[in-house]
Amino acid sequence: MKKIIAFAGSNSSTSINHKLVEFVVSEIKGHDIRIINLVNYAMPMYSEDEEKNGFPGMAMGLNQEISEADALIISVNEHNGSWSAFFKNIIDWLSRLDRNFLEGKKILLMSTSPGKRGGLSSLEFGKNVLPRFGAEIVESFSFPSFYDNFSVESNTVTDETLLLGLNEVLSTFAHQI
Predict the structure, then answer these.
(1) pTM score, two decimals?
(2) What does the alpha-carbon distance between residue 67 and residue 60 come to, in Å, rounded to a whole number?
(3) Distance separating alpha carbons of residues 35 and 59, to the nearest angstrom
(4) I need a surface site. Which of 17, 41, 53, 95 has the fewest CB within 10 A?
């Protein structure tokens, strides 16, 4: 049984990426999985001036949690073709605290959006950036047109083809970790 931390890169109280994380976690069996909400890890906007004041306790706490996990499930939101400033700020703090804060971590990287591309630009950005910090992206999945393909009320994927693809990704991820 592996220890997995799951979270969305969004600070929205109605985050569809968080909803996707909750669904995915419900589908993975046989592992110790904990969903965290990054909003609970408040950090000032990163700057060299802020860093001179020391690292935020929340950054050190999150770094510790990540270091104790075997794998991560991350669903990144997309703002103007990239990560949200909120998520980028967290990554900035973590990478300044420990350049290789994701060393040895196997990652399932996902994204979703209301649009047909499903946050694909943000997903691709993450696939390029996270390995710089030691991450091993073992699987990725872009979930398009969230509101057309997911029922928030029943917490289910409504498109059978998407569900099959997602289940295949989850199976591969579970075997890789």
Answers:
(1) 0.96
(2) 10
(3) 17
(4) 53
Count of CB atoms situated within 10 Å of the CB of 72: 20
**Quick one: CATH architecture of 3-176?**
3-Layer(aba) Sandwich (3.40)
Contact 1, 31 (CB under 8 A): yes
Cα Rg, the chain, nearest whole Å: 16
Domain boundaries, the chain: 3-176
pLDDT digits (tens, 9 = 90+) for 72-131: 999 999 999 899 999 999 999 999 999 999 999 999 999 999 999 999 999 999 999 999
How far apart are the C-alpha atoms of 86 and 78, rounded to whole Å? 11
Alpha carbon of residue 110 to chain centroid = 7
How far from each other are the two terminal CA atoms of the chain, in whole angstroms? 9
